[in-house]
User: What shape does this take?
Amino acid sequence: MPKGGLYGGLKSAGNAISDFGDKSVLRIELQQLKGKKNTALGELGKIAYKTFLGEEKSLSAENEEIKKIMSELKDLDSNIKKHEDALKKTNPEA
Assistant: This one.
């Protein structure tokens, strides 16, 4: 029987389940963030493609739509890093 008897064993099991749940949530959120990043990159790619076809005047970081996408990508990159770091802290050997 685990140290601390039955109560100690149940507490350990509860902690393990909680830890697993926390990691699962982080992994799901990380995948969602990466999906949003891919979508934003796709939008940026569409703008570039239209520019090369001549449908857009120019490709510039001053373009409001590009500014918005770049800001979103910066935020997503920051959140992705935070989630990856949090996962590393919960699983240091990975």
